[in-house]
Amino acid sequence: MRKAVFGSAIGGALVLLALTLGAQKRSAGPESVPYPEGYRSWTHVKTAILHPGHPLYEAFGGIHHVYANEKAAAVLRRGGNRFPDGSILVFDLLESPTQDNATGEGARKVLAVMVKDSKRFPATGGWGYAAFKGGDKRQQIVKDMVQECHNCHAGQAQHDYVFSQWRK
User: Fold this and answer.
1) Of the candidates 161, 166, 164, the residue with the CA atom closest to the CA atom of residue 126
2) Residue 66 placed within a domain
3) How far apart are the first and last CA of the chain?
4) In a 10 Å sphere around its CB, with 0-12 CB exposed, 13-18 middle and 19+ buried, how is residue 159 labelled?
5) Is the pLDDT of residue 12 over 50?
6) Based on the domain organization, do 40 and 112 belong to the same domain?
7) The dihedral of CA 36, 39, 44, 46: what is its sign?
8) pLDDT band for position 1 (50/70/90)?
9) 41-61 b/e with 16+ CB inside 10 Å = b?
């Protein structure tokens, strides 16, 4: 009886250990870019609107707001092109309905995030990418950061893969 209880306890402990290690491994992966809580209180870098006819309209048409946390904003303000680990940039894409010759903000289409962490994301220039459908933190839609995000950002290697620049 004691052997059975002891064996069950050891077996249970091993299962818990395996589950814990598996969860830790997953949380350290590229898919673990967090939702940027409070990003609207960060530095607003710029706003742009892509209209029909723009080559990227199908994928990114609408109002673009870009925000930076303090680490990223400091680099942008000084015109730098190398971001330290911990830098975060947010791309907030909204629909842009036009009525009566006025364009306003519509529903959120996607909230995209770039997080600089050179150790975790070496294959993408140190950046981790995520995108949340409709801004819903439970609907992370990026599956392959290289194919879906970084390949486009690679053209901005001279600016540490960041498109946005500080307007002087």
Assistant:
1) 161
2) yes
3) 77
4) middle
5) no
6) yes
7) positive
8) low
9) ebbebeeeebeeeeeeeeebb
- What are the CA-CA distances from residue 27 to residues 30, 84, 88, 139 (Å)? 8, 21, 18, 16
Mean pLDDT, range 70-97, rounded to an integer: 98
* CA dist., res. 128 & res. 35, Å (int): 12
Q: Which residues pair with 108 in a beta bridge?
A: 94
Q: Tell me the pLDDT of the chain averaged across its residues.
A: 86
Of the candidates 140, 142, 115, the one whose C-alpha atom is nearest the C-alpha of residue 128 is 115
Q: In this predicted model, what pLDDT tens digit does every residue of 31-40 receive, in sequence order?
A: 579 999 999 9
Residue corresponding to tokens 């290289």 = 146
Q: Which amino acid is at 36?
A: P
Domain extent at residue 58: 34-159
Segment 16-38 shows an average pLDDT of: 55
Judge whether 44 lies within some domain.
yes
C-alpha angle 120-139-66 in degrees, rounded to nearest 5: 70
